[in-house]
Every structure is written in C-alpha cells, then in structure tokens.
Amino acid sequence: MDCTRIAARGSALAALALLLAGTARAEPRWLLSTDARQPWRVALDRAKRAREPIMAFVCVEGQQLTAMMVRQTFGDLAVDGVLGDFLCVKVDAVSDDNQPFLDAYDVGRRDLQVEPGYEGNRAVENPGRAQTYPVTIFLNPDGGLEHMVYGFVIPEDFLQVLQQVQGIMAARERLDKQADDARALAELGGLYVSLQRYAVGRQTLEAALAADPDGKQGVGETALLDLAVAWLAGGEGQQAIDLITRHLGEYPDSELGCKAHFLLGGALLALVEPDRLAAEELTAQGKTAEAADAAARLLVGRREAEEAWSWFEGEKGKVPCEGMEWAEYSLGALAELRAEMAYAELLTEVDALLAEGKLEAAVQRLRLFGTDEKQGHRGTDRGCEALFRAGEELMKGGKKEEALAQWRKLAELDPEQNPCAQTLWRAQALGRLQAP
C-alpha cells in the first residue's frame, strides 16, 4: 500500500478530528464560583486584579433562545477564540441571588414570569425594564458597562461586537497611561458610535477634538464624521451638517470624503423631516396655506440632498468612490429621493385624470412610472407603490380582472421579473389577491 497516501489520509483525519472537536464545544469556559459567592462576584473581583474584561450571559436555562445562543454562537470557532480574552460568566435571570447584579446593570427584574418559547422569557411586571432573554453584557475590568446585546445574535454579528469591545478595552488602556491621548479618545468615541452608544460617543469625540486643538494629530479626519453620525442619530441635523461641512473644508483630499458626501445628503434630509411630517398633518387638517409652506421647505431640503448625492454621478465622485459602499448607498438613496419627488408630481397628474374619468390614462401613467428604467424609478419604493396603486384604481373602476392581473404581476417572486419582490408593496399585492 502507498505509505504516502496513508500518511496523507491520516493527516486529513487528524485535521477533521481536530475540527470536529473544536466545533463540538457547546459552551465557553464559564467562570465558576470557588466559594460561597456567586460567579459574577468572583468575576468582578478577578477582572480588577487581572485587568480583563467580562462577558456576562444573563439567561434562563432551558429557554430556546438561550440554547441557540450557547450552541450556535458561543460554539462557533471564531467566537470561541475571541472569548478566551474575556472572563465569561453565566447569570441565571430567575435566581434571587443574582438580583443585585441585575439591578446594578438594569437588566430585567426579580419577578420574572417564565414564558418558554422562541421569543424568550419576559419580565413583564415592570414595563420600564421588561426585556427578552438572553441578554449579553460586556463590562470593563472595573465593572463599568461597555455594551449590552439583547436576544439571540448570529456568530458573525457577535464576533464583530466582541472585536469592537476589544477595541474599546485597548483604547481605555492607552487612556489610563495618558488621559488626553487624542487618537485614543477618537478611536474610543468612534467605537461607541458604532455600538450606537451615541451620548457617550459624542462626549468622547468632543474630548478628542479638544485634545487636538491645532489639528496636528489629524484626529478630526475621523472624529468629525463619527461625531456627525452621533448628532444625526439624535435628530440634530444642523449640527451634523456643520461638522460634515467642516470636514470637507479641512480635509478636501481625505479618503473619507466619500463617506462625508453620503452623510451630508442624509443630514440634509433629516433636517427637513419635521417639514414632511408637518405638511402631511396640515394637509389632513385642511390648512392648505401652512401645508404649502412646509412642502416648499421640504422641497428645498430635498433638492439640497439631491445635489449632495449627485456628487457621486460626476467624475469627481466616480474617481475616488467608484465601487465603494458609500457610492452604492448614495446612488441608491439618490434614486429613491428622485422617485419620491417625481411621484408627488405624478399623483397630481393622476388625480386630475381620474377626476376627468380617464381611468385608463391614469393607470397607464402609474404603470409607466413604475417601470421607468431611464429615470431610475423602476424598483424604487415609489415605483413599486405606483404599480400597486394601478391595481387599486382598476379595482375602484370596476375592472376586477385587470386589477388582479396587475397585482399578480407585482406579487411575482422572481426579482429578475419583479424588482419589487422584496418590498412592502409586493406583500400588499398578495394581501389583495388573498382577500375574499
């Protein structure tokens, strides 16, 4: 027999056995109590001494999401490898002994009503703290809360969270040595923003900019945009616009320029979102003049956002940004925005045709809008809405079979045939087809 082949086969089997042994791990190396104290108390003490972060898994044993998290997420090889850098402790949400820990981090409550099932177990008696288990908590070595994740998280997403928390710990270590380290503050603030901890992210990023007043450390190149995202998430569009504009002025050749132009369009739209809501409400109230004023402000804001995103269509935007996610996001948003503005004009035309009894002409205009590839309306939310409304108008006009045919086409699953296959309007069409 060929000894080389035997050796190769043995190596392959050994590698397979090693792989299976790794994937067979069902749980992390949970920290157990060594005395009468609860494991989480041991973890908090050890974390301070060893300067290690903590991952606390608050759960209800036997609950389905808990089992899925342990088996699928914690059992993933990549996740397990990173968890080796954390003190891992399991906290039983039902046990009264763990209530001080739950209170300290505002997780659930003692009076837990166990309701087994896929959606988890809820603490329902106090709406302010009702949560679905499991809850995964990340603490720094001093016991401070860094992040909290609710429910089941797939391995890929959980691994990303672990890496972000590791980044937070690394930045904190640098700040322990030098509290005004501008770069460490910028990195820490950016990580907080990525974890949607916007308030502490803003505070940390502002500290980073203050620690680099002359800009020599180049902190502003990342910090200004991260700070803009934090303000934008808080509904403060103008602050975000000011920061993005400042970035574009101070760092005209930055590799983050593509991100800046994408954020600028979003901030400009966010700024006029109150006008959109006001226009709808005032119209419903019959306050025509006030609604028209709000609509005019909304249109100005939309035109400004369109201009910001259309930068990606020009050669200046194409050269540095082509193939980048920011260009893809911006061009997609630009198509949706243009369709939104065009649809408002279309509805005025359609309503006028319907008032004149020209049903076929109105339906044809809706269909043309929804399938228009030249203007980019096909596949946009408003383009799909136009196709759905074409069926609605046919049904109102007594043309039931034509309406059903229109909705059947919209309900087609194949995205090649139906660009609206993944939208709410397809679901709406299915609902109409299933109605008695």
Largest sheet: 4 strands, mixed
Task: Supply the CATH superfamily name of the domain at 22-176.
Answer: Glutaredoxin
Number of helices: 19
Order of SSEs: HHEHHEHEEHHHHHHHHHHHHHH
The CATH topology of the domain at 22-176, please? Glutaredoxin
Strand content: 5-15%
Give the helix level as a range of percent. Answer: 55-70%
Based on secondary structure, the structural category is mainly alpha
CATH architecture label name of the domain at 22-176: 3-Layer(aba) Sandwich
CATH class of the domain at 22-176: Alpha Beta
Write the layout of secondary structure elements.
Blueprint: H1 3-23, H2 39-50, E1 54-59, H3 64-73, H4 77-83, E2 87-92, H5 99-104, E3 135-139, E4 145-150, H6 155-177, H7 182-194, H8 198-210, H9 220-233, H10 237-250, H11 257-271, H12 273-284, H13 288-310, H14 315-321, H15 325-355, H16 359-370, H17 381-396, H18 400-410, H19 424-434
Parallel strand pairs: 1-2
Antiparallel strand pairs: 1-3, 3-4
Helix pairs in contact: 4-6, 6-7, 7-8, 7-9, 8-9, 9-10, 9-11, 10-11, 11-13, 11-15, 12-13, 13-15, 15-16, 15-17, 16-17, 17-18, 17-19, 18-19
